[in-house]
Structures are given as structure tokens and as C-alpha cells.
User: Which sequence fits this backbone?
């Protein structure tokens, strides 16, 4: 079983019994999901599926207040999602937000790398360089106790993301969404098992994630399950390490069991 650590979806569009839908997802091997939506929507989904949905509140990093973040976290958000900032994630102006999350022992999820044009804010240009993994490295040095997930592994700055996740104890990453699953397994094998030797410290920092939509239909998670399984086989990952990537890291970071 897996915990899908990065998904989206509108619970109001669910047309079947919630229990039946959860059973359907678990038949696909998905035990729980970390749902990234605006706080109200994430909480509503969690209320209807408390043993399936882990609520993550997506906020506008440039307008959200510390008080609002604390309300979301105290209200049950397991994490806060940041995306499309006006300034680098590493800019010190965001430190009060990061400190508020760290103080409550919760998780900060950062969109890293390329952002699709359909998701970018229409009122201003998106600068993906502000969301490079290097920016996460910068802020992690000032907030060593902040639990961090780099969504999308910094696509296309894969090597940069690998170095930072490998080097920084509190930084994890997922390969969901985007184009990671379309890259050759040869590239991933050389990253996580250079010269055929498994690099456990780097693979250990991965989390299973799909970034697909739930609730409206059966989630299209099979390509991601196949990709992660192919990666495990390519690098010779032992069962214990596969379990950690598939669900153990999510359980530890989000504080679930």
C-alpha cells in the first residue's frame, strides 16, 4: 500500500458513497492521500474521509498572514503548500511564515521547478527560477527544524534537487506530476544508484506522489505506481526502503500511523 503524498481534487464533485470511493482507491493500492487545496476545501474532504484524506492547505505565500497560517495548522492542516512566489523562497521576508510552521512541527511543501502555464497567476509573470531547489536550500539553513518537501524534485533542476535532499536532513522530495516519469530510467538509475551501487541516503529522501486529481473519477495513479516500482527495480532497492518511500516517510512527516 502507498500514501499518495501530493494530490488534488474537489470533494464536492464526488458522486459515490465516500466509503465506496475509499475502497476503490485502496484496491488500486492507495491507502491515503495528502490533498493539496485551499484550506476550506481540504478540511471539507478530510471531514468526509477522515481516515483517507490528509489535509494540506495551499496558500498565497505573498498575501497569507502568520495568524492565518496558525489558524490552518491549529485547525488540522498537516502541511502548508507554497507555490508561485513573487520572490525567491529563500528570501528572508518569508521567514515568519516558515517559523510559524516549524513551531508547530508541521510540514512546508514547496512547488519546485517548472510551473505549467495554465496554473500561473494571470496578473504577473511567473519566474520558475524563484522556485529552484537552491532556494529551498537557502531557507533550510535558517530553519533547520522545518520539515520540508520539494514537490516535483525541482524539474528540470534534478541534480540540484538530488544534492539538496541528499545533503539536508529535513528536506524530502517527490517525483509526482510533471515529466519525471517520462525521463529514462537510465538517468534515475545513475542518480540513485551511480555505477550500479544503490545510494540509500538519496533514495531514502523520496516520497511516493502522483499529483493527479481525485474524487471526480478513479484516480489515474497506475503510471506513477509503475514508475516508482520500475525505479525500485532499476536501483535494487530492498523492501524496507521501498516501504519507506511508498508510505513510511509520509507517515513520519505528517504524523500519522
Assistant:
Amino acid at each position: 500500500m502507498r500514501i499518495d503524498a501530493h494530490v488534488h481534487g474537489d470533494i464536492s464533485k464526488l458522486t459515490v458513497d465516500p466509503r465506496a470511493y475509499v475502497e476503490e482507491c485502496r484496491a488500486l493500492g492507495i491507502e491515503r492521500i495528502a490533498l493539496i487545496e485551499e484550506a476550506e476545501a481540504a478540511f471539507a474532504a478530510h471531514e468526509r474521509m477522515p481516515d483517507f484524506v490528509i489535509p494540506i492547505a495551499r496558500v498565497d505565500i505573498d498575501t497569507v498572514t502568520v495568524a492565518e497560517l496558525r489558524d490552518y495548522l491549529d485547525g488540522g492542516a498537516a502541511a502548508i503548500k507554497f507555490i508561485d512566489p513573487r520572490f525567491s523562497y529563500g528570501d528572508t521576508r518569508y521567514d515568519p511564515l516558515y517559523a510559524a510552521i516549524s513551531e508547530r512541527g508541521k510540514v512546508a511543501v514547496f512547488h519546485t521547478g517548472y510551473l505549467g502555464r495554465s496554473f500561473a497567476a494571470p496578473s504577473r509573470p511567473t519566474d520558475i527560477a524563484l522556485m529552484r531547489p537552491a532556494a529551498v536550500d537557502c531557507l533550510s539553513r535558517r530553519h533547520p527544524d522545518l520539515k520540508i518537501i520539494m514537490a516535483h524534485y525541482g524539474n528540470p533542476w534534478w541534480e540540484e534537487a538530488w544534492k539538496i535532499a541528499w545533503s539536508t536532513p529535513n528536506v524530502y522530495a517527490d517525483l509526482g506530476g510533471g515529466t519525471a516519469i517520462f525521463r529514462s530510467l537510465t538517468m534515475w538509475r545513475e542518480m540513485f544508484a551511480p555505477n550500479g551501487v544503490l545510494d540509500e541516503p538519496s533514495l531514502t529522501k523520496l516520497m511516493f506522489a502522483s499529483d493527479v486529481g481525485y474524487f471526480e473519477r478513479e484516480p489515474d495513479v497506475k503510471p506513477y505506481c509503475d514508475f516508482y516500482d520500475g525505479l525500485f527495480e532499476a536501483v535494487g532497492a530492498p523492501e524496507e526502503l521501498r516501504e519507506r518511500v511508498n508510505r513510511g516517510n509520509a507517515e513520519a512527516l505528517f504524523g500519522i500511523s
